[in-house]
Design goal:
With 397 residues, the protein is α+β, with helices and mostly antiparallel strands. The chain is built from ten helices and 18 strands. The strands form four sheets. Strands 6, 7, 8, 10, 14, 15, 17 and 18 form an eight-stranded mixed β-sheet that branches. Strand 7 and strand 8 form a beta hairpin. It catalyses: a 3'-end 3'-phospho-ribonucleotide-RNA + a 5'-end dephospho-ribonucleoside-RNA + GTP = a ribonucleotidyl-ribonucleotide-RNA + GMP + diphosphate.
Length: 397
């Protein structure tokens, strides 16, 4: 479909979904964003839903300003996926051992490694810029400095909520590895620190929503935020890279006879800020629950833990600021999902998937999410589908 345009105070709101299907709270958030003095464009993806601070599934383009709440607390959260040489025929009938081995290698929930993972211990794996990255920790906000040890031990860990590691099979029978995570606790604390700073600045006092407080160009607060933001985005990128190395290591050990090989990784942020140019203007583009989908760029759009996911290639649609959705998107809150569904429902909706089926993950049940096929169909002018994957193992925190 092409987009629908809803009038906004400063800019029109371009929506790749039926505006009537968007809940009132999310629509109000979008209208509030459209009032910001610095805004130059607002695009809304088909996975749109109400979010803390700002709407999930929104792409906000501003000139000379950035809103930390529009990035969210999981700075740099995103996806990585890699196609393997294994096929469905290589997988055992009982996948519980494989799931257990993945959980042993990659700490989940609030878990962390006993000490920092050394990328150098993995054969043939080089982490460009690794030492420089950690050296720049000295330059981040003082309020998080005491978290350095925790940040090093959480590097290469999954977290909880909608984060996951999956073994998937595509339509041709090839096995893929996929994972979803971000900047862990250090990103959250940096985000919350800067949100607090922004809300106290004088230029934000008249805003319609205090969560939309911004930093503006050429101020020390903006410089400090962008420094910490870009560091946290790197943390998230490295976090996924190390998890994928650990994941591949499990696969190599479990399928020694097959000698698995791996194609080039696909990786994309979906909560982040990028400097991009549109219509002759240098803009700060914030994607909260959206991926970049420039022409020919690969991306990942996951569904839920019982449906499937898509590998896509961007079509470079500038009306969406070269963006696409980051997933299926929730159609109900976690609280509502827990009220509505039982563990029996979870078992039914994840039939055929080796995963947790207990009350701790009922809020992640497929029924709490929009149908991924419809979400993909609504953005046919944003991305081209390259592969459809179906998970057979799903590890949750």
């Amino acid at each position: 479909m092409s987009y629908a345009e809803v009038p906004g105070a400063k800019v029109p709101i371009r929506m790749w979904t039926d505006p009537a299907s968007v809940e009132a709270g999310a629509m109000q958030q979008l209208q509030n964003v459209a009032t910001l003095p610095w805004i130059k464009g607002l695009a809304v993806m088909p996975d749109v839903h109400y979010g803390k601070g700002a709407t999930v599934g929104s792409v906000i383009a501003m000139h000379g300003a950035v809103c930390p709440a529009a990035v969210g607390v999981d700075i740099g959260c995103g996806m990585s996926a890699v196609k393997t040489s294994l096929t469905a025929n290589d997988l055992p009938g009982d996948l519980s051992r494989l799931r257990s081995k993945i959980e042993q290698a990659i700490p989940v929930g609030r878990g962390m490694h006993e000490s920092m993972v050394d990328p150098g211990r993995f054969h043939g794996f080089a982490m460009a810029g690794w030492d420089d990255f950690w050296g720049r920790f000295d330059g981040v906000a003082e309020t998080v400095k005491f978290r350095q040890e925790r940040a090093t031990k959480q590097m290469g860990t999954l977290g909880s909520g909608n984060h996951f590691c999956e073994v998937c099979i595509d339509m041709s029978g090839s096995v893929w590895l996929m994972l979803h995570s971000g900047s862990r606790n250090i990103g959250k604390e940096l985000a919350e620190h800067h949100m607090g700073v922004a809300q106290k600045l004088s230029h934000n006092q008249g805003l319609i929503d205090r969560d939309l407080a911004v930093f503006i160009a050429d101020t020390p607060q903006m410089a400090a935020y962008r420094n910490d933001l870009y560091w946290a985005q790197e943390y998230a990128k490295y976090n996924r890279a190390i998890m994928m190395v650990l994941f591949k290591d499990v696969i190599r050990r479990e399928f020694k006879k097959a000698r698995p090989t791996f194609e080039r990784e696909i990786s994309c942020h979906h909560n982040y800020v990028a400097e991009e140019r549109y219509e002759g203007m240098d803009l700060l583009v914030t994607r909260k629950g959206a991926i970049r989908a420039g022409s020919g760029e690969y991306g990942i759009i996951p569904g839920s833990m019982g449906t499937g996911s898509y590998i896509v290639k961007g079509l470079g649609n500038e009306k969406s600021f070269n963006s696409a959705s980051h997933g299926a998107g929730r159609k109900m809150s976690r609280t509502a999902a827990k009220r509505r569904f039982s563990t029996r429902d979870l078992e039914e909706q994840t039939r055929g998937v080796e995963c947790r089926k207990d009350s701790g993950v009922v809020d992640e049940i497929p029924g709490a999410y929009k149908p991924i096929e419809k979400v993909i169909d609504q953005q046919r002018d944003l991305v081209q589908v390259v592969a459809k994957l179906k998970q057979v193992v799903c590890v949750k925190g």
